[in-house]
Amino acid sequence: MEVFRLQNSKYPLELSGKGAATFGARWNSKGTEIIYTAHGRCLAMAEVVVHLSLAMLPKGFKMTTILIPDDVEIYTFEVKKLPLGWNVFPELNETQLIGDFFIQQMKHVVMKVPSAVVKGDFNYLLNPFHADFNKIIIASQEDFPFDKRIFK
Length: 152
What we know:
The chain has helices at 18-23, 41-49, 93-105; strands at 2-8, 35-38, 61-67, 74-76, 110-114, 122-126, 137-143.
């Protein structure tokens, strides 16, 4: 399975949850390392764009294609188990605890969760501490210029 990650090229090309741990996000508390990916390039872009200013066109972004082998089990978090308002901003502590537990439990290397940005789409969270994490590889990374019309 291919998943995607859009990131600023000022950060190293690696699969690391250190950036997410710096501030925390929807699916992790501050201090918990987790890697956010998206099922498609469009969703990866949408997940980044919601955090960018419309005042200037962002530059220096790269789209990373990540391969998850077929023999890696993907745990799907059931949407019906999510708390009311799970997709609001700022994020709920309850959703952060779901991701923290996923990392701590060490049962799976990948967890599928719904996107809060695009209803019906999914993100895939990666546990960089799981024994099977070394099976997940970066297949490619390409420059990703944003279309100026997005930021009008």
